[in-house]
Amino acid sequence: MPRAQSDTKAEIQAAALDLFARKGFEKTSLREIAERLGITKAALYYHFPSKNELLRSLVEPLEQDMGGLFAEYGDEPGEAPEGMSDRARELLGDYFDICVRHSTLLVAVLNDVGSLADIGLIDAVVAWRRRLDRLLVGPGHGTPARMGAVIALGGIQDISVMLSAEEALAYRERALDIALAALAAGISSKD
């Protein structure tokens, strides 16, 4: 039975993401992806005219999720004493979920920063982290508060890379407690 076009496209993306995470973007050839799936390179090119187009298709869901996150939370920090609130926990939790959902892509980023920088993903991640920092800390707090946000956000992102998705999700609430503790310690520090 022939594959459905959408199934083939999704299968190509899954195989490519796995190979990019294991070997890096540069060290993975389109031939390897096609061979893994038992399709021709021509069939792969039908769906993705270039390896960069394939990579962009893998990054797009992350970009959409982050766009949705910022659409939900806006750009202004929530009002809360000492910068802590249920909103901060919800924001960190939503960011945690995005990181876990895209953990294989984040591993691929670590394996091949240069190629992902070429398509703008590294700049996008840095911009996202700065926006998240502003949402969590807001104005009026100095470097220690920013450090707390960096540790909270970086820790959450790293959990998705270092642990399996199942393990990360099993400890989600504990990870959020630790991230909020780092954030609170930074905010409560005197500059």
From TrEMBL:
UniProt entry keywords in alphabetical sequence: DNA-binding, Transcription, Transcription regulation
UniProt xrefs under Pfam families: TetR_N
DNA-binding region range list: 29-48
Domain HTH tetR-type: 6-66
Keyword Disulfide bond: no
Keyword NAD (UniProt): no
InterPro entries named among the record's database cross-references: DNA-bd_HTH_TetR-type_CS, Homeodomain-like_sf, HTH-type_TetR-like_transc_reg, HTH_TetR
Gene3D superfamilies to which the protein is assigned, alphabetical: Tetracycline Repressor, domain 2 (1.10.357.10)
Name under which the protein is recorded: Helix-turn-helix domain-containing protein
Organism (species): Nocardiopsis tropica
